[in-house]
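Structure tokens please, single chain.
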Amino acid sequence: MRRTAHAILAAIGAGMLGCNDLEVCGSTAQDITRDDGSVYRCVTSEDCPRTSRVNVCVTDVSPIAECVSCESSRCVTIIPEKC
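Here you go.
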């Protein structure tokens, strides 16, 4: 009986993961530009401008939320793409 209950709970949990809003299938990078259209330059990701709701990217893996990064000395916003 206990084994059956665990199997049912595992199946329900696996089904819920399939509908997860956090699932990301990749990301796109968009330049962060100044008012005159020029790109912000950087040495590290912390140099890039961002709002209080946007974090600095901490890994090279596609993020689950928008973040900023320094790529090839230019500031970019990394935007996750949901599946």
